[in-house]
Amino acid sequence: MGQETNQSELEVKARQWLTERGVTIDDIAELVYYLQSKYHDDLTIEVCRHNVDRVLTKREVQNAILTGIQLDVLTEKKQLEQPLQKTIEVDESLYGVDEIIALSIVNVYGSIGFTNYGYIDKQKPGILQKLNDKSLGECHTFLDDIVGAIAAAASSRLAHSTDEESY
Q1: Which runs of consecutive H residues, i.e. helices, occur in the chain?
Q2: For a FRET experiment, which of 16, 27, 84, 95 has its CA 20 to 30 Å from that of 5?
Q3: Which H or E run includes 79?
């Protein structure tokens, strides 16, 4: 099996796990639109979706998705040792490892992603609000930051574009 096949399998699995956890490409594209619409008069959700798709082709992003989602799932199943189990369960504010994984995604498209990520992480629009709702009994300690980071990276990719062809 060649490297290209492995990357393709990794991407398929990352996309599958996002969907299984209730996150669609359109959910993330809406976050990109939220971040970038005031800077691009002709921005469409299709352009946002395209940029999200491009971000999801990056191996670093795929690895971050799988790692974060796996930790969330293990936390839901109460399969982590204490005190890590409780720390992730309650999404302790000083934990920070979830943000570090997200920053590995943000880094893929340059420093503008940091600003986008910080802003969207504070605002928590759209799917991010749902992922942060602890009343549903699901753990999305890592996933909410990962989704925000994918949107921030896609927004950065879009910001670096100079014309329609670059979108």
Answers
A1: 3-20, 25-36, 45-56, 59-76, 84-89, 97-106, 112-123, 127-131, 143-160
A2: 27
A3: none
148 vs 61: CA distance, rounded Å: 12
Angle at 29 between CA 24 and CA 32, to 5 degrees: 140
d(CA 47, CA 53): 10
Do residues 70 and 120 touch, judged by C-beta distance below 8 A? no
Q: Are 144 and 63 in contact (CB under 8 A)?
A: no
Whole-prediction pTM? 0.92
pLDDT in tens, the chain (167 residues): 444 444 579 999 999 999 999 999 999 999 999 999 999 999 999 999 999 999 999 999 999 999 999 999 999 999 999 999 999 999 999 999 999 999 999 989 888 899 999 999 999 999 999 999 988 889 999 999 999 999 999 999 998 875 554 55
